[in-house]
Predict the 3D structure of the following.
Amino acid sequence: MRFATINYKNREQLAVYINLNQNNEVFFIPIEVLNTFFDVNWALSIEELLNSNLFDEFLGWFQKKYQEIQRNIISQNLNAILAQEVKFCPLYRNPSKIWGIGLNYKDHAKDLNEIAPESYPASFIKGKNTIIGYQDPIIIPALSHKTTGEAELGIIIKKKCKNVPRSNWKSVVAGFVPILDMTAEDILRQNPRYLTLSKNFDSFFSFGPVLITPNEFSEIATIKVSTVINGQIHASNFIYNMTFPPDYLVSFHSKVMTLYPGDIISTGTPRAVPLKDGDVLECHIDGFPALINPIVKQNKV
């Protein structure tokens, strides 16, 4: 199942993906529309849905209603929006925390002349001020002369959890999402203690446009992640080449901190690419629509 947050009636609202199998037409239908049609009261944002502890219940309800929803879209009894006409917003804006994972592919460690960590993940925390969405501008801060961008696979946590076994990791995962994570690399190179500073400028975390639930993937390890700049692939790698794979990352971080609904784990990048004013940065992940953001240089502090 696929979710997006869209601008509908000038408000950010949760919507779900519908494929009509007619001329390969793809739609999004706002939850608000489903609520009115079926006389139900599902949450209108991903955050609210996750925090209600009804995420799995909604998935089951939607699957039962899916064919009926399709029929009513075709008959125009339900107002759905063609995917190409959707204005995407950030999936949500107020996660409890964002865990970033540095140097999780050895190729990225070479970019910074660093040795890839082997004992524990090179984890760091990002603030919600960094969040933007599809097609929002990534701002190169005036304080940085070399900002880089990194395509990553993100993991969205669906319920409060602690000490999750690796074997049971998917039971706490709502889904996966493309991410673009930025770094003021010149600041980081001055001193490794500047990692938090270099990662937390406004607009340094884009995610979306679509969240896909785990059941759509037979094997997450075989997914390929690519950092793309101005339409050219800068670097690609497969999840199975991570030092710390997704199951480990969920389990490990649940032992460090209690995880909450909506928490995000950004799993690391194949390689980072330097950004300049006018560039277009993209995250391409197998099975997902591309995450695309333009680059703008801030001229003054």
